[in-house]
Amino acid sequence: MSDFASLRVFSPLLRESQDGRLPSFALEILRYLREHPEAQDTVDGIMVWWVSERAIKNWLPQVQKSLAALVNRGYLEKHAAADGRTFYRLNQSQAPRQVSSRK
């Protein structure tokens, strides 16, 4: 099932968004509200809770992969805390002075 099919309730708005008349982020707002139909908030609350929640879900795999690569190259140090959380910090002796996209 497509993302659009799961949002049948908003079909008139979705037709508009497919035509490019709504901002692209409008679909993300509709998706969030479809998943949380009782939700309501201010713009500030939407940014903190709705947007950050989706961003965390979307970016988490990439962040984990990036942290693993940085640890593997020795740029970051990884430490486990007593409570089981993992902390990352710059390895002062191995971190490059300049950051580039090469290698």
Keywords:
disordered N terminus; mainly alpha; 103 residues
Description:
The protein is mostly helical. It has 2 domains: 1-39, no CATH class; 41-103, no CATH class. Helix content is 48%, strand content 10%. The chain has 3 helices and 2 strands, in the order αααββ. It has a two-stranded antiparallel sheet. Strand 1 and strand 2 (86-90) form a beta hairpin. The two termini are 39 Å apart.
Give the proportion of residues in helices.
40-55%
Oligomer: single chain
What is the global morphology?
elongated
Our estimate of the beta-strand percent is 5-15%
The order of strands across the largest sheet is 1-2
Topology:
Blueprint lengths: L10 H8 L6 H11 L7 H30 L3 E5 L5 E5 L13
Antiparallel strand pairs: 1-2
